[in-house]
Amino acid sequence: MNSDLCAAIHHRCRIQFGYEPGMRIVEPYAYGVGDGDHELLRAYQISGDSFSREEGWKLFHVDKMSDITLFDETFDEPRLGYMRNDPSMSMIYCEW
Length: 96
Prior knowledge:
With about 100 residues, the protein is mainly beta. Strands 1, 2, 3, 4, 5 and 6 form a 6-stranded antiparallel sheet that branches. The protein has one helix at about 5-10; strands spanning about 15-20, 20-35, 40-50, 55-60, 65-75, 90-95. It has one domain.
């Protein structure tokens, strides 16, 4: 379990990390385990590189993330579309 991700979720801090094809900045909402024991992060990407779109809801495989940095910048309200108890995760470590 990555305690930095839980800290970012609990303190509502934006984070930056490397994830193919480049750096991303996201608002993290839920962190847990999906099928096949893969650790997952549900987040709203606000900027950065992406194969699909630069902004929007995304599900990241934690083992593919690198150089995780927590920002002092926070966010106050959940984004439209946020759903607690993310159905993509069989076990949730922490959530917004």
